[in-house]
Amino acid sequence: MDFQTYDTLVFDWDGTLVDTFPFIIRAHNHVRTLFGLPELNETEFLTYARWTAKHSYPIQFGARAEEAMQELYRFIETEKDFSRDVVEMPGARAFLDLIREEGRKAVLVSNKRGAVLRQEVAALGWEDRFSAVVGAGDAPADKPDPAPLFKAIGEADTKKCLYFGDTITDYLCTRTAGMPFVLIAGDEMRKRLFEDLEGDGETTENLIETLVCYATFNDLHQDWISSKTTGQNLF
Description:
By secondary structure, this protein is α/β, with parallel strands linked by helices. 53% of the residues lie in helices and 14% in strands.
């Protein structure tokens, strides 16, 4: 995979460019407690986290799913402290700056509700870094359906894209869309992705051979600089 051939990089948000996990699990557990359900630990929560609340809340809350989602959104809008709860991933800002300097576009596609997503992007001062920002509810369907990905690509007026994400939801979205995927995740999340994909019919051997992985954007940034110096393909 030659990085130089891609004019646009597509990014997931939560877990990829920013760390919002502590606040997200706190928000969902607040709702579960309010509705008389036990709190989820990290492992249990990640089982639901691959889907939007629109898909997972009917499973958790049944007939009260809509009411529970309204409470979730109320909590997010009123309790979030941006300086504490939306934290840039290591090297993310510098990597976004790098690709902008190179004249490449960046596109954001997330399963976070669109209005909330754009609010968080603005809080970091990153509005000018993205040619398109598409969140849950902005397209006819959410990830892993490729609809939001195609919408973002259309808004950015681009075709040659490379996607960066951290979950099976991102991987399945790009697989359906036929877009190359780069995993940005530490060892634990990489292990979880492999386990999830094995259940989806992939094999560990094939994933190890074909999946491009970086623990952080700092690692990717270093390789990118080296590739420009040596003229070698990044991937």
